[in-house]
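Cross-posted from the bioinformatics board.
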Amino acid sequence: MQRTLIIDCNKLVGEVVKIEGFVQVRRDHGKIAFLDVADRTGVIQVFCSGEQAGNLRSQDVVSIEGSVAKRPEKLVNPNLETGEIELQTEKIETLSKSVELPFDMSNKELDLQLPTLLDFRSLTLRHPKVKAIFSVQASLMAGFRKAALDLNCIEIFVPTIAASSTEGGAEVFKIDYYGHKAFLTQSPQLYKQMLVPVFERVFTIAHAYRAEPSVTTRHLSESTQLDCEFGFVEFEQLLDLLEQVATSMLKFTEEKSGKNLADFGVEKIAFGKIPRLSLRQAQEVIFKEFSRDNRKEKDLTPQDEIDICKWALKEHKSDLVTITKFPTKAKPFYTKPDPEDPEYSLSYDLLFRGVEVLSGSQRINDYQQLVDSIKSRGMDPKNFEMYLQAFKYGMPPEGGFSFGLERLTMHILNLANIREASLYPRDMERVDVRFSTLKK
Amino acid sequence: MQRTLIIDCNKLVGEVVKIEGFVQVRRDHGKIAFLDVADRTGVIQVFCSGEQAGNLRSQDVVSIEGSVAKRPEKLVNPNLETGEIELQTEKIETLSKSVELPFDMSNKELDLQLPTLLDFRSLTLRHPKVKAIFSVQASLMAGFRKAALDLNCIEIFVPTIAASSTEGGAEVFKIDYYGHKAFLTQSPQLYKQMLVPVFERVFTIAHAYRAEPSVTTRHLSESTQLDCEFGFVEFEQLLDLLEQVATSMLKFTEEKSGKNLADFGVEKIAFGKIPRLSLRQAQEVIFKEFSRDNRKEKDLTPQDEIDICKWALKEHKSDLVTITKFPTKAKPFYTKPDPEDPEYSLSYDLLFRGVEVLSGSQRINDYQQLVDSIKSRGMDPKNFEMYLQAFKYGMPPEGGFSFGLERLTMHILNLANIREASLYPRDMERVDVRFSTLKK
């Protein structure tokens, strides 16, 4: 007998079908039992005798033959896509038996402490509310990719192994590379720039590695970046492009993952015209509207980010706000200083509901200026040979930007910790298994 | 003045436009000069005076204002999308100047030795014929993704840092991970399996690292895999799925990159019904049709692969052929032995025009059988704790497959070396720059 997908049972009332899936919940009522069985398309209530249910429990994998029946009016569940039907069991086969669960998986919320959530990651990811995080994440990726393709970007796949620690700043992971020293790239930044003269417009979904020896709720040792880079563009056009990609990707996600977003209590995103303020202008707003004088700081404080977003929502009906022109010194070497005021740079962040989710800049595209900038940061241009080669042979005005995927996911869904937005998060204390438990 | 994309000039005869792009070729004819200028949409012939052309050369980045004119009939170039027009220069601005090129970039073929091709990778990638390789590669990725999404797979992004060398066999790269030992994953294999109970069907485009200390034309230290994994499927259905994905992805690539494929002299792919043979059946064909008796070998030889594909094309009008049931011992620990003949496994390769481009298998989904299989290979189940957790709590029958992206690209385009199919290839001798040149 062929398998029927659970969602398709809705159209098969009165017929005998075979479904295959995981037991999510078992409810016993004297001599009868109800099982909630899930496959990739949905969940269905299965009615069976206690004998048929045997010792089945949550996470057992089953194949069930039975007839699809309408539920009595008063037992209809309006919150379930198959809420008007149930499956009346003829035969249950166990395809794979689960051991006893270490905690209850049947509640709507999986209320676990983070270490437990991660110690049992291969199990906890199965909980509908946990799994939903990654459906939203997949929508963000797909929405980003669609937006980039719509702008004529070509997808590139760039290396993660590099011969030198390239961007400076953050700590890097060292690799033993055939006896030579090599490093995991901190981002796809340099490679996406190098490919601008080749393809003019590129995008990539790439790994980023940061060996920061700190344990916070906002850092991962291995994360995912959504990156775009555009040739033949100037600053204002870059702002148009980043706002277009961000808006398009968020709208796509609301469309594809609306139900998941609703389950997380996420409000509809406000897509008013996105206000653009330089850092100094934003600090003026903070000073005037929120009475904090941070007008000489080199960045917005976390509270400033929250407040400027409140202001943008109130004044511009926008959950997004673009902040530009951060001090040149505070930005990486490839950032182009504003020719009219070189103390500030042609850089930008995009804030969303109180948090920065994107950053980028117009880049230095002049070879000599770039070499000088590398030197001025105390780095050696010799370590950038292949990167500089791309500029030596002609590089158009160019720029780009980058979203942190886990960060964006975390923030949209109001998760407490970025680890919840990574399938198998890597940090200082854990690579799947906690290091502290390894040396027994 | 706004930039006009080169391809759009076709519709603007008689009008004054500004184009921006790279000088590809310069041809001087006494007091006049022709420039071929390229942007992401195409190439246009620019007519100018020698004075206007100044010292412009290949790879200079220019902005040119001029009027679009019809070419005289006899000067029309039918091989160029803008072959009926040219741009008559009013003003040329150099946006970025290239240094002198180390070799001629103006010929149709870039006839360089591999080391030079890679030493100047940021330059050589700009050559139209080199760049075309990666347009085809992008089509393969997009075609794969579309095929996977059409089959309800969800996109996952899996870690590349692992706590133990997982799959055995090939050498692994060691990382210094906050003072602990960690490794770069050899493939996304274990993680995609772990996510089957979560999403049932998953796909990923992932990095794969192999520290094999050998320099061949077919191995990269860092490569890209296109992976799918499906739950609730049995062997025959897996064969249907892999053939469906492969066919769909190749058709997509022919559709999107037809011109590039033609430039490489690639013949139309034959999509007859794909023959399926067990290894032993294939070896019988080789014995009967090609008079080589390899019937006891544990795999097809390279010549066998070529010949069985010739046979498939002749007998079945198919450039693809599926080979199944390789000896269990020759396959990784997670491969399911055939219950009817455990010496052989429920594994498969897909061959395309004489080369294996995909491999995969039905997996062991029983926890105890999997633990036993790990032990039987001399490995320690303790190193697979998070992986085994996924099986302990119920795992449906499942299987999947994986394409090597660079390998497939190389093979479709008949490239001589897999390094040509990687933007910035990593091997034993080179990470962008050759190690041998570093210690000067």
